[in-house]
Amino acid sequence: MSSRPAESASRATGSLPTRAVTYGTVFFTGAAVLVVEIIGTRFLAPFYGANLYSWSALISVTLLALAVGYWIGGRLADSRGSPALLDGVIGLAAAFVAAVPPLAHVLADPLASAGPRLGVLASALISFGPSLTLLGMITPIAVRLAAPDFAHLGRSVGSIYAFSTAGSIAGALLAGFWLLPAVRVSRICYAVAVALAALAAARALARTRLPALGLLPAFALAAWGALTAAAPAAAPEAAGNFRVTAVYPSFYGTVKVLEDSAVRYLVIDGMCHNAQTIAERTSVLPYVSVFGILPYLHPAGRDLLLIGLGAGDMVRMLGEFGIRTTAVEIDPVVAQAAFRHFGLRPQEVELVLDDGRAYLRRATARFDFLIIDAFAGGSPASHLFSREAFAEMRAALRESGVLGVNIIARRATDPLVADLAETIAAVFPYRLAVSTAPQPSELGNVIFFASDRPIELPSHLEPPPADARLKRFLERLPRMRLDIEERRGRVLTDDFNPLEALAAPTEEAMRRTSRAAVPASVLAP
């Protein structure tokens, strides 16, 4: 007698309209999982960098949270599985997704002191673990609701996971192809939370036989999307001694333009990439001036390939020597900031929006100078620092052409310096290096120069540069030379390139310095 009500309830639960709603629910929540995971790196990047550690930590936390969610959700589905339980879990997930921006903002800074590995793992676990666990609980509860009977359990389980995975694919494409390049990450997070809350509310209301309200999630998401897409640019805001004058979302990181009383800064994911005086519009970073030596290393040179545009300071400085620049910049938002805020003019540069390595493989033109000044977050872009990449750079240079490579390191002890010196020497027979660090143990820029002919820093500048400040700096440059001949490192290749791990201590030290000097509200995305 008791089996018939249970069988009737199972059939009602597994009816076609109910299964369709359940499949739609897992599709949308599967999309939410991937959106939250992908934007998670943007919340962590200003404090830890968008590097291998951040991605590994976030992927690991996502998988752990989903596994825990599957386990808890399965137990709840067997004990009290019902549409109301599913609605409650979705609503609670919405609340925790909405809590991600303030949690990441408040916790990332203090947890960063634990180091690049433990700190990023703890930040990811605390900030994203609860919401992803709740989203993981949805799948086993949905399986329970979608299965009409045990005879069709396999089909129901397969359908639920298929729809959830399809939603995850859609979420990954949505986040990477449209949302991140156009919308601030905090707004994306709040939009996901609003849509989840609307989904939970619509499901609950639909059970009261008002099925038209089932469209509420679509309406809510569309309204929120229109709000974020049409939102005006944020007004300048003050943060300590700094004024945030512009914020641009980008596929590659959050780009901010900051000012204090005298200097304008280009900040990407919490790291300062360029700094320029507001009055004269000249760079205040010493490493830029180091590249002013290039015309003296190859006086006949006239064509420069610059990989990594930044604020365009090197374009203007070398343009005063009559050097024509082709700049390859992977991020169009960085180029936009250079033109809008740092005085770069379109007629001063031939801009190519591309990855530097991809451009090198396709390039038919040859250049007298080639500069690598490309960073992914706070680390050098590793695919540009291998033996194969340097071979492609040598092929892009004319005879007697000069390569310049910029990294940040401790000049005396950093194995990154030794490994890069060895890797460059595997391709170029002649090289030298200088450092802007005041002391061997301090951080600074290390700039390598390499060529197919002997190169030497000139003791006298003839003719002297028009900029007296640059002249004084270049005259001091021979005293900044590094002895790299006795260093023994490893040759980095495309197959073996631990560059991110080598650069991690330097990046951590730089971010620690940034956090001490810049308010956390400036670093937050």
What's the SSE blueprint?
Layout: H1 3-13, H2 16-48, H3 52-80, H4 83-98, H5 100-111, H6 118-146, H7 153-182, H8 185-206, H9 216-230, E1 237-239, E2 242-248, E3 255-259, E4 263-268, E5 271-277, H10 286-290, H11 294-297, E6 303-307, H12 313-319, E7 324-329, H13 332-341, E8 349-353, H14 356-362, E9 367-372, E10 375-376, E11 379-380, H15 387-396, E12 397-410, H16 415-425, E13 430-435, E14 443-451, H17 468-476, E15 481-482, H18 499-517, H19 520-523
Parallel strand pairs: 6-7, 6-9, 7-8, 9-12
Antiparallel strand pairs: 1-2, 2-3, 3-4, 4-5, 10-11, 12-14, 13-14, 13-15
Helix pairs in contact: 2-3, 2-6, 2-7, 2-8, 3-6, 4-6, 4-8, 5-6, 6-7, 8-9
Main sheet makeup? 8 strands, mixed
Going by CATH, what is the homologous superfamily of the largest domain? Vaccinia Virus protein VP39
CATH architectural label of the largest domain? 3-Layer(aba) Sandwich
| CA-atom Rg in angstroms | 27 Å
Spans of at least 5 consecutive residues whose pLDDT stays below 50 are: 1-13, 229-235
